[in-house]
Design a protein that fits this description.
Layout (H helix, E strand, L loop, with lengths): L7 H26 L23 H12 L4 H11 L4
Keywords: Membrane, Transmembrane, Transmembrane helix
Protein name: SHOCT domain-containing protein
Organism: Pseudarthrobacter humi
């Protein structure tokens, strides 16, 4: 008479497990592919300063000016020291 209805509880368990699994995968994807989090492709903090691509706008402008030849190497290094990013 009620054949098959005894397993309805398992449907809820599987549904919850699927929902939790999907949430975990989304959370991991956001953490791995999020920008500016200071982690490299390996998922570990990269040693030796800030992660690539996170230079300040001032440093980017300075690099562009040096690449265009508007600054000498000496001026470039002096400005890096002023920014606190140089040797």
């Amino acid at each position: 008479m009620m054949w098959g209805y005894g397993n309805m509880g398992w449907i809820w368990v599987w549904g919850f497990l699927m929902l939790a699994g999907t949430a975990v995968l989304v959370l991991l994807a956001v953490r791995m592919f999020g920008s500016g989090n200071g982690y490299g492709k390996s998922g570990r903090q990269e040693p030796g300063g800030p992660p690539p691509g996170s230079r300040s706008r001032a440093r980017q402008i300075l690099d562009e000016r040096f690449a265009k030849g508007e600054l000498t190497a000496e001026q470039y290094r002096a400005q890096l020291r002023v920014l606190g990013e140089g040797p």
